[in-house]
Specification:
Elements lengths: L11 H7 L1 H14 L6 H14 L3 E5 L2 H11 L7 E5 L5 H8 L3 E5 L9 H4 L7 E4 L11 H11 L2 E5 L7 E2 L2 E2 L6 E5 L13 E5 L2 H10 L22 H11 L2 H19 L5 E2 L9 E2 L5 E5 L2 H10 L25 H7 L2 E4 L7 H16 L2
Parallel strand pairs: 2-3, 2-4, 4-5, 5-8
Antiparallel strand pairs: 1-9, 6-7, 6-11, 8-9, 10-12, 12-13
Helix pairs in contact: 2-9, 3-9, 4-5, 10-13
Bound molecules: pyridoxal-5'-phosphate.
C-alpha cells in the first residue's frame, strides 16, 4: 500500500492487486484481439449491466456526465424547458441541464442528503419537463413519492444514479425507475474503471436507439447514413472489458461496504456532535454507501484532527453549488447550506479492514469525548 495515511480514503493499487490476474487477462485479450472500439466486450458489459439493474437496455458512454447529457437530449429536453434537480450534488448534474439549453431549477434536500419530496411539488411550473433525482452517496431518493409526483404532472424522470449502482428502493434497483438511469464508472465509484466511462439504462427502445446514435456521431453503422449531429461518447472497449470483470465482484463489495457502514453506525451513533447517515438495516432502502458521510459539529477541526491521526477524509461540498457566483444559480436552499457546513466523508472502501474502521471510530471518539 503506497499511501501515507493509516486509513486511506481510496486505495487503488491494493484494489488492483486483489484481482490482478483477471484484470490483466482481460487487458491482454483486448490488446491481442485489437478490440478497441464498439466490440463484443462492450456489448457483453452492456448486457450484464442491463440485467444487473433490471432494464431492457444499457448503452455505454464515455462518462456519467455524458450519460446524463445524452439522456436529456434523447428525451427532447430543449430551450426553455425546466428540469428540476438539487444543488447538493456533483456539478455535472446541473451542468448537463445547462448544456441541453434547459433551465436548471434547484430544490432543497433532506437529512438523508437527497431531494426533499415535500418541496418538489412547489417548484413545478408549466415549463417543467423533467425531474432529475440524484441518488447521492449510494442511497435512492424516495422513488414512491417522486414517481407519484412525476406521474401527476406528466414529467419525465432522468435518474442521476452515478453514485448508486446496486442500490435499491422497495427491492427495485437505481436506474430502473426513470426514462433513463445514468451511471458513472469514475474510479472512485462503487464500480470504478481505470479512467472515465459511464452507462445509460432504459426500458424504452426508442430512447436506447437514440442514445446509441448520439454517442457515435448519429451515424447509422450499416448504411452510413447520418441521422443528425451527434457526439463521440463511446465507452472504450478496454474499459468495458475491465469493468465487466469487476462487475462480478460488485455484490460482494457492496456487502462489505454495508458491513463497514454498520460498524461506523454502531461506533458513532452515541456521539452527540455527530449525525450518522441512514443505517444499513432498513426494509425499504438498500444503500450501497458509495460515500459514508456524517454531519459533524466543528467539522473543519475534526478533519484536521483526523488528518493528523492518519485518517484521510473528504469534504463534498463545503461551498454549495448555488453559491458559486459564476454559475448564476439564484436559489435559496437553507438545508443545503446548513448541511454543507457539517458534511465530512469518512474512509469507506473495500480495501480497509475492521481494525482500520475501529481506528477511525476511536479517533472521532477521542476528538469529541477526549477518551
Ligand atoms: C460522478 C458523478 C457524476 C458524473 O460522472 P462522471 O463519470 O465523472 O462524468 C454525476 N453525478 C454524480 C452525482 C456523480 O457523483
Amino acid at each position: 500500500m503506497n499511501n501515507a495515511y493509516k486509513v486511506p480514503f481510496v486505495d487503488y493499487p491494493t484494489h488492483y492487486h486483489n484481482i490482478k490476474k483477471k484484470i490483466d487477462t482481460a487487458i491482454m485479450d483486448v490488446l491481442e484481439g485489437g478490440d478497441f472500439i464498439l466490440r463484443h466486450q462492450l456489448a457483453e458489459f452492456e448486457e450484464n449491466i442491463a440485467s444487473f439493474v433490471g432494464t431492457k437496455y444499457a448503452i455505454g458512454v464515455n462518462s456519467g456526465t455524458d450519460a446524463l447529457l445524452l439522456s436529456l437530449l434523447a428525451a427532447g429536453i430543449s430551450q426553455g424547458d425546466e428540469v428540476i434537480t438539487v444543488a447538493h450534488t456533483f456539478v455535472a448534474s446541473v451542468a448537463v441541464i445547462v448544456h441541453s439549453s434547459a433551465i436548471a431549477v434547484l430544490v432543497d434536500i433532506g437529512e438523508d442528503f437527497n431531494m426533499d419530496m415535500a418541496q418538489l411539488e412547489r417548484v413545478i411550473t408549466l415549463k417543467t419537463k423533467a425531474i432529475m433525482p440524484v441518488h447521492l452517496n449510494g442511497r435512492l431518493c424516495d422513488m414512491e413519492k417522486l414517481t407519484g409526483i412525476a406521474h401527476k404532472y406528466g414529467l419525465l424522470i432522468i435518474e442521476d444514479a452515478a453514485q448508486s449502482l446496486g442500490a435499491e428502493f422497495n427491492k427495485q434497483k437505481a436506474g430502473s425507475f426513470g426514462l433513463t438511469g445514468c451511471f458513472s464508472f469514475y474510479p472512485a465509484k462503487v464500480l470504478g474503471g481505470i479512467g472515465d466511462s459511464g452507462m445509460v439504462t432504459t426500458n424504452n427502445k426508442e430512447i436506447a436507439d437514440k442514445i446509441r446514435l448520439l454517442r457515435d456521431h448519429c451515424v447509422q453503422r450499416d448504411t452510413g447514413e447520418l441521422l443528425g449531429y451527434g457526439f463521440n461518447s463511446r465507452l472504450d472497449n478496454l474499459q468495458a472489458a475491465i469493468l465487466d470483470v469487476k462487475l462480478k465482484y460488485l455484490p460482494k463489495w457492496i456487502e462489505r461496504r454495508r458491513e463497514i457502514a454498520a460498524m461506523y453506525e454502531q461506533g458513532l451513533t452515541d456521539i452527540e456532535q455527530v449525525r450518522t447517515p441512514p443505517a444499513p438495516a432498513n426494509n425499504q432502502y438498500y444503500d450501497v454507501y458509495t460515500n459514508y458521510v456524517i454531519q459533524a459539529e466543528q467539522r473543519d477541526s475534526l478533519a484536521k484532527y483526523l488528518k493528523r491521526e492518519g485518517v484521510e477524509t473528504i469534504i463534498s461540498w463545503a461551498k454549495p453549488m448555488h453559491l458559486h457566483e459564476n454559475l448564476e444559480l439564484n436559489f435559496k436552499l437553507p438545508k443545503t447550506e446548513e448541511i454543507s457546513r457539517k458534511v465530512i466523508s469518512l474512509p469507506l472502501n473495500t480495501e480497509i479492514n475492521n481494525e482500520q474502521v475501529a481506528y477511525v471510530i476511536k479517533a472521532i471518539q477521542e476528538f469529541y469525548l477526549g477518551v
